[in-house]
Every structure is written in structure tokens, then in C-alpha cells.
Request: fold
Amino acid sequence: MITRRIERAFAYLLLVLIGIIGFAPFVVILLLSTKARIEILQVPPTLDFDIDQIVSNYRNVLIDRGFLGYTLNSIVVTTLTVIVALLVATPAAYAFSRIPFRRRDGWANTVLSLRFMPAVAVAIPILLMMRFLDLDDTLPGLVIPYVAFSLPLVIWILIGFFDEIPRELDDAAMVDGCSRFRVLTSVMLPLVRPGLIVSSIFAAIFIWNEFLVGMYIVNSQSLKTIPLGAAGLISAQRPIDWNVAATVGVVTIIPIFVFSLFVQRYIVRGITAGAVK
Reply:
């Protein structure tokens, strides 16, 4: 009994330590976003808060530096990419899970391996393709490559969820006269809804933070996403305003954090389902 209590106490202590290490950077960046530039290097740091300074920092970032527009662009690009990726990946994952064809497992592994292709290796070809389609420096020109990058992981996760559903449900529906498409839309989709949410989470996090491909495709200031706008804070001509950089960090984190907070219970299941295959 004593040994079990010690193990439990050690487990809780370890969890608290992990929590502190995980949240400490977010707490620091939140505190820095409330300070004036001159207060950043103050030793010891002060915990005094000036509401006027906080409003000034966030007005500077959201309005003066245009991050409100960057945030809206990121939301639009992320939403469109996730929707298109799900529309394409769902029937593909169903086919991999349910329809037998030659070298099915090999093709599934090939699809997943495409996810590990470094973006830097294909950024220039993607730019040339978008220029050929006259989509460079446009939001659709961002959505198309982001869909391509998101599809392998989304397909793989959904395959795991489809594999968990008994095949007898497909057979029963088809005996009743349903086509494959009707089985997918009417029977499978309600059952695989957690998988759709999980894959949306991982795709959204990737798209929200993607920088390299966006840097090649987007040139207009009005079309930049948050990572592209944040890159403009670094300049050789002037020192970095760390309070502004911290405020940008908070603005970047909050939308995806709120999204993840509502769907966090699906994340672990998604990791497990994607690893079962």
C-alpha cells in the first residue's frame, strides 16, 4: 500500500512538472505581451500591469501592423483547406479500408510516406505550378498546396477509424440496396465523425503554422497569413521589439488553442487510430 502511494505521488509530481514546463513558455509570452519595450529587460521583472500599455501593444499588433487581417487570412485558408482535404480524403480512406485491390497496403504506405516530404524540396515546383495556373499571390494558390500536404495524414488517420467499424455494417447496408456511396454517406460518416474531427485538428495545426510554401507563393501584404506576417518582425535594420513579438505570439496561439481546447478529447484517440494500422 505504501509503495502504491509513493508511485501515485511520484506520478502526480511528474505530471505537475510536465505541466509547468509545458505552460511556462506560454505564461512568459503572455506576460511579455503586457509590457512596454523598456520594461522587457528590467531586472528583476515586474508583475505590474498597465491596461493602457496592454491596449497599446495589442492595437499596435492587430491594427497598425495588420495582424487582424493576417489572422482572418489564416482562418480562411485553414478552413478551406480542411474542408477540401476532408472531401477528398474521406472517400479515399474508405476505399483503402473497404475495397480490396492489388497492393492496397503498399499504396497506403506510399500515401503516408508523402507526408514526410520536406516542404523545401517542393516549394519552387509548387510556385512554378501556381504561376502556370495564374494562382500565385492568391489565397487559392495557398489552399491547393496545403491540401496536398494535408491529405496523406488525413487519409491515414481516417483509415484507422474506418478499420474500427465492423464490415458487417457495409454488407447489411448493401444487402438492403445501398450503393457504396450511400453506405459511405449514410452509414459510415456518422460513425467516423470523431475521425473527421481528429484529422481536422492535425491538418489545421499544420496549416496554421506553415511558413515556407506561403513565403514563396504570397507577396502581397494583404494576403499574408500569421506566420508570414510574423516573419516581418525580424529585420537587420532595427532591433526586435520583444513586447510586440510576444503579443504576436499570443495572437497566433489563441485561435488554435481555443479550437484545440474544444476538441482535445479526440486528439489521443486520433494518434492511437493512426498508429494501429
Remarks:
- The two ends are 39 Å apart (CA to CA).
- Residues 43 and 122 are 46 Å apart (CA to CA).
